[in-house]
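Appendix B. One record, verbatim.
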Amino acid sequence: MATFRKNRKELTLWNRCLKRSFDVSLSLVGMSFTSWIILAAYVLASLETKSNGFFIQKRIGRNGRIFHFVKIRTMRNCNASNTTVTTSKDPRVTRLGRILRKTKIDELPQLIHVFFGQMSLVGPRPDVPGFADKLGGSDRVILTIRPGITGPATLKYRNEEDLLSSVQDPERYNEEVLFPDKVRLNREYVESYRFLNDIEYVFRTLAPKWGSSNAR
């Protein structure tokens, strides 16, 4: 496991406590209102894919620690494909899965991660091993906070799957264009952290039209 030095641009203790309180409060509210949606989506996904309706995958968390990330399954198992990049034309995505991904319902189980402290409501999206854990230099400040459900990079690339489907080599484009830009946005988020920005990002996530017209 990597050793992290104290960085003067990391979140202060006060900001960490404020952010964590916000996470716990909203995740509890969110789970109380959406638990029936999660259950229904799980059952339907299980029936359609004929497998566990929860998709579980290793992701990189705070300080480079690996945790088991859970979301609603939206894709069929395909042994012939080993890519982690998904486009809007990916044949592995089920009919229900397209709806779940479009509405972000597949992400709702992550509220459990937020409540238990593996994730935050706002922060960099948790990557699979081989990306975030390979960051170097000042970029490693991103790993000093919990990964999030939403954030500046998530909002900018809200339609990432459509974008990837429009390029000739999605994996290369993701590695050479999208990932570096997401790193830049996430580093700026940490280095210039303000709690009010978290509230704004959550609001823009829940109100897509407002968020898209005011995206930065």
